[in-house]
Amino acid sequence: xxxxxxxxxxxxxxxxxxxxxxxxxxxxxxxxxxxxxxxxxxxxxxxxxxxxxxxxxxxxxxxxxxxxxxxxxxxxxxxxxxxxxxxxxxxxxxxxxxxxxxxxxxxxxxxxxxxxxxxxxxxxxxxxxxxxxxxxxxxxxxxxxxxxxxxxxxxxxxxxxxxxxxxxxxxxxxxxxxxxxxxxxxxxxxxxxxxxxxxxxxxxxxxxxxxxxxxxxxxxxxxxxxxxxxxxxxxxxxxxxxxxxxxxxxxxxxxxxxxxxxxxxxxxxxxxxxxxxxxxxxxxxxxxxxxxxxxxxxxxxxxxxxxxxxxxxxxxxxxxxxxxxxxxxxxxxxxxxxxxxxxxxxxxxxxxxxxxxxxxxxxxxxxxxxxxxxxxxxxxxxxxxxxxxxxxxxxxxxxxxxxxxxxxxxxxxxxxxxxxxxxxxxxxxxxxxxxxxxxxxxxxxxxxxxxxxxxxxxxxxxxxxxxxxxxxxxxxxxxxxxxxxxxxxxxxxxxxxxxxxxxxxxxxxxxxxxxxxxxxxxxxxxxxxxxxxxxxxxxxxxxxxxxxxxxxxxxxxxxxxxxxxxxxxxxxxxxxxxxxxxxxxxxxxxxxxxxxxxxxxxxxxxxxxxxxxxxxxxxxxxxxxxxxxxxxxxxxxxxxxxxxxxxxxxxxxxxxxxxxxxxxxxxxxxxxxxxxxxxxxxxxxxxxxxxxxxxxxxxxxxxxxxxxxxxxxxxxxxxxxxxxxxxxxxxxxxxxxxxxxxxxxxxxxxxx
Length: 752
Description:
Layout: H1 2-26, H2 33-49, H3 63-75, H4 80-87, H5 91-94, H6 99-106, H7 108-117, H8 130-140, H9 147-161, H10 168-188, H11 192-206, H12 208-220, H13 222-242, E1 247-253, H14 256-266, E2 277-283, H15 290-304, E3 306-307, E4 313-314, E5 327-332, E6 338-345, H16 346-354, H17 373-383, H18 390-400, E7 405-409, E8 415-419, H19 424-431, H20 433-437, E9 439-444, E10 447-449, E11 461-465, H21 475-478, H22 482-513, H23 520-529, H24 535-543, E12 556-558, E13 561-563, H25 576-582, E14 589-592, E15 601-603, E16 615-619, E17 625-629, H26 635-642, E18 646-651, E19 659-668, H27 673-683, E20 688-697, E21 700-709, H28 712-723, E22 728-733, H29 742-750
Parallel strand pairs: 2-6, 14-18, 15-17
Antiparallel strand pairs: 1-2, 3-5, 4-5, 5-6, 7-8, 9-10, 9-11, 12-13, 16-17, 16-18, 19-21, 19-22, 20-21
Helix pairs in contact: 1-3, 2-4, 3-4, 3-9, 4-7, 6-7, 7-9, 8-18, 9-10, 10-11, 10-26, 11-12, 12-14, 13-15, 17-18, 17-22, 18-22, 22-24
């Protein structure tokens, strides 16, 4: 037996060496002899440090850092420093090696990168999100060294590729966090290939059924698609050859996640998603001829096929903020299908595939201002306020990861790039903080508009300021960019702190009058007594005269210490700090239908889970545990930011009772359709209707019904009956909280 184990270890050792040689082959054109020595040393250190560790799959842990280093080298085209840091990225966090050891062996740069990648130790506090703190720590390094973020993306990509060995609840948490933060970050850095793969892997674990269905439909329609593409591209190829162009023509099928997004946003089935693929024409042309050549090719394509004038995107003249350059048009094929055609040069294609990050020169920029400089400037502004709450930081940073952009002009004709939906207030802060803070209005194309006015591409904007102007809370509703929101919040906090200081002085005087000591225990008593969440909030209310301090006499004073009679506590534990003492959210599973350690739990109203639905529990601040569906509109947000407050949950097998379910029916308005629907509900065994409402517009109806069912399978039967009814085109579950605005729900949940 011992001999067999030794043979296995020897085999593993050879496989590890082969994996490392494969990494060296990928980096062979991009390293000096000294750098090769450093990479070998990093490998040796990592192997030794991780020698007794294994992954959940059972394989030696060292495979993970090697795989991450390979992604950095092969898929991001990063240099030796990133490869060294990737090999060592988990050593400080998981082994005996310290940051000082790293600096001594590999220098200060590698130390800084490893420090940025090392997680903060996890300590439970319902007011602090460890995920948000770690994300902020990583982002703080962007302005020093972009490699930290790129290695973290490579690390996350490999974790997602090997996620099948994890428990289902862990898979869901990691996928939600990836979809919420890391996929948009990859997009913002122009790493489209990685972004698409991350999104597909997230969907695979967050909605396995949708992933399987789309995947199988893509496979079954593959042959038909290929025939269509051959016919469509043939005349274009011939014409380009005749014109003497050297080119490559590819057909790219949309990612599964983007097809799913399109189905959800447009409310259409797979068969009605018209742009399942795009044709990409990549020209081998010198940089100075790129623009005219792209437009000439556009002219050739539109000679054969009629373009849609609303679907022309010229990112050749004005590249996107993440450096993406391409000319996109959508044309009508002879078969009556719209087809997207992307035209670009080889250089543009490289940037689109690998991201500008891959071409970021760490030593010095040869062409003056790098295309990332402006974005990094925005990040610096955002991270300038180190005291900012980590959760706010994540929210604001997410706002900065915008997908679509508008191009607006200053009165002097300078171009500014802003996210779609930006207002005149965002524009003012984009120009300068002081202009933003004193902005009272603007002129758009010479016409006076308010601060809340939404800008569109091509607008010329002139900001009007006044030295008497001060920001107010209302401004946070107008601003959509992270920069503007952060500056407004900082200004408002300054004002709040000033008012709080006044309140603190008033309370101090009152305490002296009543011989009460000014200590934190007494402040905590008053917070509970006056029902406020923080000391600062208490001081502000005192300053504004909203707290009756005459009630201080009614509170028992024992030698300067305030004592409040203990209230009779309800039997069930509801508060997060008490719940946390009773459970281990990593190991415990809540069984719905059984008592769970005397903790209060209930179903979330946003998604109305039914027995049979995949579910998880979320620990609220003061309302016990809320049970959510895995595909709840808020699931990604809850797990993406606070997975340490999520707990695995499952249904008790024999739990039988009525549950409320909500369905949306869409179809063609017809006489008697309402009657048909109510008949189905009436004849369906054990289904009772709670409410029904219908809206009809231009021959299309949308009905919303609420019914009581036993479980998901009971509901599926009802859905199947509806789908077989003539006139009904689509049936789906609907939720109270819209997917577009889950933050409103989350904030409410934390402070309820």
